[in-house]
Design goal:
single chain, 418 residues, alpha/beta, Rossmann fold, 2 domains, six-stranded parallel sheet, four-stranded parallel sheet, binds adenosine-5'-triphosphate
Length: 418
């Protein structure tokens, strides 16, 4: 990816589908045009419609040094060569589920060349976090209005994973306002969070991830809306790894069927830890190994890695074993404190395309989690479930569907659940 803008967009446009080109042109025309109005756009579309792909095309066109790109999680940010929202805007991170203190740390320096700010996987960004982004952008350029007058494009799918223990980006802070609106039904936009109504809407429609298995794509659209047919249940039954939730059976199947970037998706971090450690692996930061340094006997001495959450370069050295006993320590070699992890939470998988997934399913599950997990793969053959609980069901979030339909109506599209 070049850091300078490409002025002839024809080559970039060639790699995009017609709906991606429509949005690409709309954004670039507004940024490059004579209008002084900043872009305020929310680009949605179901999983696999190439939202992240379009982001990389926009970065190429505008030039990496002229765009800020971010996402709520490190893995999602890495996907679009960006930073986490926290890292980009220097927001304090909440620890152990406690709320942070709401302070805004020093904002990064912003040159005059900043043309566009992009936030991917917006479904996971809470209304509170979005308020902070607004303050941070206004701090870059005070006196220029909302979001500092910068162009801002949001990408995501409101039917994928919502923010953890927080309000949706479109949800109102004060229940009382909702009550008032119920009594005096005014413009529906008043329901929304403070900044959300500033955004116009676009939707991508071509599924690029499951385009070779349209039956699977249709199945996913049912699941996205919380509908699981009898045929779907039969299919899920046939994709079970084991009759009982046995980590060993899952691990064995994983080793046999897992390809390239396969993942076991689980609900909670502690389950991921358990699964990883049972298999002799450990959970931790996800890192990309950039360089393996060896000595003259080809023993690995150290690794240069980039954690996906921070994108810093880190060197990992061998450590002495912790076991007690001097003799035992002398016998054991210093070890590298890094092992591959293959179970992650559904949250960490959002935004990725994976070769194979193994879904851990509770008896009742949010449609957003199930849909996000299942839609990571390209075809039915790449999807497994660790076990299908009796009476398995998924439930849809009505607020997200309602907001989706409201947005679609603004561009004359029918409700998704019609
Ligand atoms: N125009 C395109 N031509 C070829 N491949 C494409 C195109 N657009 C997207 N893809 C591919 O389709 C897959 C899904 O794309 P992408 O991850 O951008 O979708 P997404 O809408 O961001 O999905 P999600 O909502 O799940 O994050 C990726 O493998 C991507 O490379």
């Amino acid at each position: 990816m070049s850091s300078s803008p490409i002025t002839d967009y024809s080559l970039i446009r060639e790699r995009l589908s017609p709906d991606q080109v429509r949005v690409f042109d709309r954004i670039l025309n507004q940024i490059g045009g004579s209008s002084s109005d900043p872009v305020r756009l929310f680009v949605s579309g179901t999983a696999g419609t190439g939202k992240s792909f379009l982001i990389t095309a926009l970065i190429d066109a505008v030039g990496a040094k002229n765009v800020f790109v971010c996402a709520p999680t490190g893995v999602a940010a890495k996907q679009v060569k960006g930073k986490t929202i926290h890292a980009l805007f220097n927001l304090p991170v909440a620890k152990n589920g406690e709320q942070d203190d709401g302070r805004l740390f020093t904002a990064p320096a912003v040159g005059d060349n900043l043309k566009l700010v992009i936030v991917d996987e917006i479904s996971m960004c809470s209304a509170e976090m979005f308020d902070r982004v607004e303050s941070a952008m206004r701090a870059f350029r005070p006196n220029c209005g909302v979001f500092g007058g910068f162009s801002l494009v949001l990408f995501g799918d409101l039917l994928q994973i919502p923010p953890v223990n927080a309000r949706w980006i479109f949800e109102c802070k004060w229940g009382g306002v909702v009550l008032l609106i119920l009594i005096f039904p005014l413009n529906v936009g008043v329901f929304s969070a403070q900044w959300w109504p500033c955004f116009e809407y676009e939707e991508l429609e071509v599924n690029h991830r499951q385009h070779t298995d349209m039956e699977f794509a249709e199945m996913l659209q049912r699941w996205r809306l919380g509908r699981v047919s009898g045929g779907d249940m039969d299919f899920l039954q046939s994709r079970q790894v084991s009759g009982t939730p046995s980590y060993a059976a899952v691990a064995e199947q994983y080793c046999q069927n897992g390809r390239g970037n396969s993942m076991i998706l689980v609900q909670y971090n502690k389950t991921a830890d358990e699964l990883n450690s049972r298999c002799g692996l450990m959970n931790g930061d996800t890192v990309l190994v950039q360089k393996v340094h060896t000595d003259q006997d080809q023993n690995v001495e150290r690794l240069t890695v980039t954690p996906v959450d921070t994108a810093e370069v880190v060197t990992i050295y061998r450590r002495q074993p912790q076991e007690s006993g001097r003799q035992q320590q002398q016998q054991q070699k210093p070890y590298l404190p890094v092992l591959p992890a293959y179970a992650v939470t559904y949250h960490k998988a959002q935004g990725q395309t994976l070769d194979t997934v193994f879904l851990e399913l509770p008896r009742s599950m949010d449609a957003s989690l199930f849909f996000t997990g299942a839609s990571r793969v390209r075809s039915r053959d790449d999807l497994y479930v660790t076990r299908l609980p009796a009476g398995f069901s998924i439930k849809i979030n009505g607020a997200a569907v309602g907001e989706y339909n409201r947005l679609r109506a603004t561009i004359q599209l029918p409700p998704i659940d019609d």
